[in-house]
Automatic annotation (TrEMBL):
GO molecular-function term, one example from the UniProt record: RNA binding
Signal peptide: none
Any coiled-coil regions, as ranges: none
Matching InterPro entries: DYW_dom, E_motif, PPR_At4g14850-like_plant, PPR_rpt, TPR-like_helical_dom_sf
Pfam families in the cross-refs: DYW_deaminase, E_motif, PPR, PPR_2
Gene Ontology biological-process entries: RNA modification
Domain DYW residues, every copy: 810-901
Domain of life of the organism encoding this protein: Eukaryota
PPR repeats: 288-322, 389-424, 491-525, 592-626
Keywords: Repeat
Listed name of the protein: DYW domain-containing protein
Length: 901
């Protein structure tokens, strides 16, 4: 028969099997029950330890073994308390401590282990049955002090760490200083507590004060590197991090323990020095799972998504096992890049290594598939998950909010979440409000906001900002302004939401006033504010307003920001000052693809095709690869300048040289290029060979080409384009006007009449053509034949004077652009009073030597284009006209477009 010593050894050995073979443990227990050692204290203590180590959490058997021990010694009590502490069962651990005190089993050489476990459980558990936080740790401190174990190195170090975690820094430091024997362990405890509370700077000071205690300690240096990641000033953190890097290299610690190198990789990654993190990683002789996790996660967090995926591939290729951390980071990179195929591959890897049941991995997969617009895959994962957490619900609601599913689906999932007992948090509410915003469901938003207040989100700034956005995009700026004024807390997002709201509702003047208010309240503009207002200025060609914002940007020290500079280039080019755009561009210290694209597109819209192509060559010489947007600008430049062969060459080079697959917008540019050049047959052949169906824009371009063609109406092509346009957009007046204009340009007045009758019978309203100019006294808008302006007599007098001078210079009215079946004299009078001619006549009634800038909402007609050439020569002033397609610069009788417009 085995003795109690044999049973003790076997039970001790069984602890190592506890993860895989629970049945073996119960068999041993049964054998003990049959023996005479069932009440032996040593055997009972071994049983308690064994069940405490059991993976299957056999609490009942654990308690039975404890209760079945008739005589309990200090080891028995320490074992049961330690087991419950390690499992986070704080209530039970504290209850057993109370029972132990009543049993008066208080002195033991294992009391330090017991107190260490109890100290740990104060910050690893939030059980309601235990006094929480500082109250609990101070009670333990009193008991430890009374027992005399506070000077024990193990207990004292644990106490220091716990006190620091609860922000009781003064007490923590006092305990630390009273330790009879301080070493690296106690220093590390204090540093860890400070790091937990995001006090990285204080932790570094502790390290400095410790001196020789931590000089050769691996863990202290790893903790020090972790402390640097909690610095508020990342520049200072990088500087000190480099100093620590030199220290560990000089002391040889970097070569002795892999954790030091891992700490460096993590520190550089979180401080934004990802290039240094990668260098450290590549210099490591040995790499473990933590090494790969740190570098992949760092690359993902620093927006080096493609490189993160390459490192994940390298990790697999070198035989290293992926972890859930590396898989989550790689999935996050796929989401940012919208790489659906790569995401599917990583999903397969996760399943292969058993991570398809890891809730964090599944949550990241939901987000990734959502970003890649693979909504069915999101639902498939969500509905197959055995369990959900808060992030799961938020991820799924967020995916639905950003997709085009009906609002009822998002709200339905939100209600299901609450029905299942989950309490929505701030992220949930922001997602639901975001889902309501595109649908402008203000009433629903108010209900959601009321629920948020009931759930304790009162004055939550993220929820309030989402509500601001909902009001603004629902065109209810009055409620938006009232809600903003009632907000007790405002951040940058709050102010930016208001600016974006004014811009969204076409209230540029109010947006500018609000920017002034921001500056007056000490709220500096950030890149978002700046680019939002500049975009609005660009859309209405408000140059003066744009220049004001430029001045604001200089005052806010944003003039060297690449995003801001790119927005300035775009604004100046769209407001007619391509020269200012070039000045900003040439002074930029750093240029990205957006900067180059804005400059290329600017020159293209202004008719400077050769200059646009020069900028394109400069971009390539700067080792920056062109993208799809770049080629839209390049092809537009060729189209607006008549560079047919060059345009076709650049289109072919997209796939052959730059490995870019042309998109529908590039095909549209080529159709426009051929149509403007009058090569209608070539255009028709090109359209027939397109790998995708032509869109509405291409069919309209074809109609425009038929209108300009000198070779007849191209009946078959015209008929096909007309039928398709009217089928796709039967209620769009633009299509009827285009068809009517084609008939009129060829003198087919019966066709014009049919098109106009069809347009009158459709439920639509044709957009009226108008032109406007911005002067010191405001914006002046003109319609064709307009006689509402207060200075109409002066305007028409100036217009008659200009007509007389133009005819003397050789001007002949282009009557084919009067799309009505009238007598020649009536057509000429009709052409004379187009809105852009009224606008230029009005500006010329004012004395100014500055270039004349006129904006028009529709495409300028051929007669006005010719007239502006003559007017620029007669008055000796430059005229800049922006129509719906491009800019025209008229000077000395010529236009920058070279008649390719």
């Amino acid at each position: 028969m085995p003795s109690q010593f044999t049973f003790g050894c076997v039970l001790e050995h069984a602890r190592s099997w506890a993860l895989i073979c629970f049945c073996f443990e119960t068999q041993i227990h049964a054998l003990i029950m049959k023996s005479k050692y069932t009440i032996d204290i040593m055997v009972s203590n071994s049983l308690i330890s064994m069940y405490g180590s059991c993976f299957w959490n056999q609490v009942n058997l654990l308690i039975k073994s404890f209760d079945g021990t008739p005589i309990k010694n200090s080891i028995t009590w320490n074992s049961i308390i330690s087991v419950h502490s390690q499992r986070g069962n704080a209530v039970t651990a504290f209850n057993f401590l109370g029972c132990r005190r009543r049993d008066q089993v208080l002195v033991s050489n294992q009391m330090n282990t017991l107190f260490g476990s109890l100290i740990t459980v104060t910050y690893t558990s939030s059980s309601d049955g235990v006094p929480s936080g500082p109250c609990s740790i101070e009670q333990i401190l009193a008991r430890v002090s009374k027992s005399g174990f506070l000077s024990d190195l193990y207990v004292g170090s644990a106490m220091v760490s716990a006190l620091a975690r609860f922000c009781l820094f003064d007490i923590a430091k006092k305990v630390f200083l009273e330790l009879s024997d301080r070493n690296a362990v106690s220093v590390n405890g204090l540093m860890l507590g400070l790091i937990k509370q995001k006090s990285g700077e204080a932790a570094v000071e502790i390290f400095k004060d410790a001196g020789d205690l931590v000089l050769k300690n691996f863990d202290s240096h790893v903790i020090l590197l972790s402390a640097l990641t909690e610095f508020e000033d990342l520049d200072e953190a990088r500087r000190k991090g480099s100093e620590v890097h030199c220290l560990v290299v000089r002391s040889g610690l970097i070569d002795c323990k892999i954790a030091v190198s891992n700490g460096l990789v993590n520190m550089y990654s979180k401080c934004g020095a990802i290039d240094k993190a990668v260098r450290v990683f590549k210099c490591m002789n040995d790499k473990d799972q933590v090494s790969w996790n740190s570098v992949i996660s760092g690359l993902d967090q620093n927006c080096h998504f493609e490189e993160a995926l390459l490192f994940f591939s390298d990790m697999r290729r070198t035989g290293n096992m992926p972890s859930n951390f590396s898989i989550i980071s790689s999935i996050s990179s796929c989401a940012s890049l919208e790489f659906l195929k790569t995401g599917l591959q990583i999903h397969c890897v996760a399943s292969k290594f058993g991570f398809d049941s890891d809730i964090s991995v599944l949550n990241s997969l939901i987000t990734m598939y959502g970003e890649c617009e693979a909504l069915p895959e999101c639902w498939k994962i969500f509905r197959s998950m055995p369990d959900y957490d808060q992030i799961t619900w938020n991820s799924m609601v967020g995916v639905l909010s950003s997709s085009e599913v009906p609002l009822e689906v998002s709200i339905g999932l939100f209600l299901e979440m609450m029905q299942r007992g989950w309490r929505p948090n701030r992220v949930t509410f922001v997602n639901v409000l975001t889902a309501s915003t595109p649908h402008s469901v203000v009433e629903l938003g108010k209900q959601v906001h009321g629920l948020a207040v009931k759930c304790g989100m009162f004055r939550d700034i993220a929820v309030d900002n989402a509500f601001l956005s909902l009001y603004a995009k629902s065109n209810d700026m009055i409620s938006c302004e009232r809600f903003f004024s009632e907000m007790s807390l405002k951040d940058e997002v709050s102010w930016n939401s208001m600016v974006a709201g004014y811009v969204h509702n076409g209230l540029l003047s109010k947006a500018m006033d609000f920017v002034w208010l921001m500056m007056h309240n000490g709220q500096n503009m950030d890149c978002f504010t700046f680019t939002t207002v500049l975009s609005a200025c660009s859309s209405v060609a408000a140059l003066e307003r744009g220049m004001e914002i430029h001045a604001f940007g200089i005052r806010s020290h944003l003039e060297s920001d690449v995003v801001v500079d790119s927005a300035l280039v775009d604004m100046y080019s769209k407001c007619g000052r391509i020269d200012y755009a070039w000045q900003v561009f040439s002074l930029m210290p750093l240029k990205n693809e957006f900067s180059w694209n804005a400059m290329i597109s600017g020159y293209a819209k202004h008719g400077h095709g050769s200059r646009a192509l020069e900028i394109f060559n400069m971009m390539q010489n700067s080792n920056l690869m062109p993208d799809h947007v770049t080629f839209v600008g390049v092809l537009s430049a060729c189209s607006h300048s008549g560079f047919v062969e060059q345009g076709l060459y650049y289109f072919e080079s997209m796939s052959s040289r730059y490995r870019l697959v042309p998109r529908i917008e590039h095909y549209s540019c080529v159709v426009d290029l051929l149509g403007r050049a009058g090569r209608v047959d070539k255009m028709e052949e090109f359209v027939s060979r397109m790998p995708m169906s032509p869109n509405i824009l291409i069919w309209r371009t074809i109609l425009g080409a038929c209108c300009r063609s000198k070779q007849g109406i191209h009946t078959n092509l015209f008929k096909k384009a007309s039928e398709i346009l009217l089928e796709l957009e039967p209620d769009n007046p633009v299509n009827y006007v285009l068809i009517s204009n084609v008939y009129a340009s060829k003198g087919i007045w019966e066709g014009v009449a049919r098109a106009r009758i069809a347009m009158k019978g459709a439920p639509m309203k044709k957009e009226a053509g108008c032109s406007w100019v911005t002067l010191k006294d405001g914006v002046h808008v003109f319609l064709a034949g307009d006689r509402q302006h207060p200075e109409k007599e002066k305007i028409y007098e100036k217009l008659h004077f200009l007509n007389h001078k133009m005819k003397e210079a050789g001007y002949v009215p282009q009557l084919e652009f009067a799309f009505y079946d009238l007598e020649a004299e009536s057509k000429e009078e009709l052409l004379s009073y187009h809105s852009e001619k009224l606008a230029v006549a009005f500006v010329l009634t004012r004395s100014s030597a500055l270039p004349i800038r006129i904006m028009k909402n529709l495409r300028v007609c051929g007669d006005c284009h010719l007239a502006f050439c003559y007017i620029s020569m007669i008055v000796g002033q430059k005229i800049i006209l922006r129509d719906s397609n491009r800019f025209h610069h008229f000077s000395d009788g010529r236009c920058s477009c070279g008649d390719f417009w």
